[in-house]
């Protein structure tokens, strides 16, 4: 199957099976989403959603979080992975937002990655979800699923290479939604250890499933 045909068929499937695809993190504004995404690194969205209500209640803005300390924030987020580092990142991020951006979340990759705790993946999530830009955040789910389906070749050994390959073939207008398609598919169907191939609508299109039948 040619690459374009594979992409067309995968996109057609997701358009029908998952017409609404969006982040499962709970937030009310760009600052809260940025906090939630930083907390979600190597942690489940479910866990993050359990702790953010209290955190957002007491620190609803960058100004409020910038005025506290990592030790205080730690008590709110202690049940997530790497709470010490994330507490430092959150306060440092909030202080930089206040100092350099008037308390507002910037909308470019270059500015976002300057913030403590924000790498390319997190920056792309913010660009995509908040600012509706054609940015593809590649987390472990996206990386795994795109390789299994055959959307990217084995030579794409890094998240950046995977991101560039996906954005080359996915129509620009669909990239923000496609990011969530791949994440949610990886989270609930194409799981790491026991993928539910028998229940997958891509069975027979997915390159991994075709190889398994040989």
Automatic annotation (TrEMBL):
[4Fe-4S] cluster binds at residues 190, 197, 200, 206. Its cofactor is [4Fe-4S] cluster. It holds the Pfam family HhH-GPD. The keyword DNA-binding applies. Binds 1 [4Fe-4S] cluster. InterPro entries: DNA_glycosylase (IPR011257), Endonuclease3_FeS-loop_motif (IPR003651), Endouclease-III_FeS-bd_BS (IPR004035), HhH-GPD_domain (IPR003265), HhH_base_excis_C (IPR023170), HhH_motif (IPR000445), Nth (IPR005759). It comes from the Bacteria. Residues 39-188 form the HhH-GPD domain. It catalyses: 2'-deoxyribonucleotide-(2'-deoxyribose 5'-phosphate)-2'-deoxyribonucleotide-DNA = a 3'-end 2'-deoxyribonucleotide-(2,3-dehydro-2,3-deoxyribose 5'-phosphate)-DNA + a 5'-end 5'-phospho-2'-deoxyribonucleoside-DNA + H(+). DNA repair enzyme that has both DNA N-glycosylase activity and AP-lyase activity. The DNA N-glycosylase activity releases various damaged pyrimidines from DNA by cleaving the N-glycosidic bond, leaving an AP (apurinic/apyrimidinic) site. The AP-lyase activity cleaves the phosphodiester bond 3' to the AP site by a beta-elimination, leaving a 3'-terminal unsaturated sugar and a product with a terminal 5'-phosphate. This is Endonuclease III. It comes from Phocaeicola intestinalis. The gene is nth.
């Amino acid at each position: 199957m040619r690459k374009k045909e594979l992409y067309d068929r995968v996109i057609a499937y997701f358009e029908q099976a998952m017409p609404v695809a969006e982040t499962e993190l709970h937030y009310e504004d760009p600052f809260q989403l940025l906090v939630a995404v930083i907390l979600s690194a190597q942690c489940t969205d479910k866990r993050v959603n359990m702790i953010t209500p209290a955190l957002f209640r007491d620190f609803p803005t960058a100004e409020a979080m910038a005025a506290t300390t990592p030790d205080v924030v730690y008590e709110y987020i202690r049940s997530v992975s790497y709470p010490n580092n994330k507490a430092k990142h959150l306060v440092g991020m909030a202080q930089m937002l206040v100092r350099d951006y008037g308390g507002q979340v910037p909308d470019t990759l270059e500015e976002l990655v300057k913030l403590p705790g924000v790498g390319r993946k997190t920056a792309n999530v913010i660009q995509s979800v908040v600012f509706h830009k054609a940015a593809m955040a590649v987390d472990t789910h996206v990386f795994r699923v795109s390789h299994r389906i055959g959307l990217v070749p084995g030579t794409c050994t890094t998240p950046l290479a995977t991101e560039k390959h996906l954005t080359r073939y996915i129509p620009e207008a669909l990239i923000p939604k496609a990011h969530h398609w791949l994440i949610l598919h990886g989270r609930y169907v194409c799981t790491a250890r026991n993928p539910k191939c028998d229940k997958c609508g891509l069975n027979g299109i997915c390159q991994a499933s075709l190889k398994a039948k040989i």
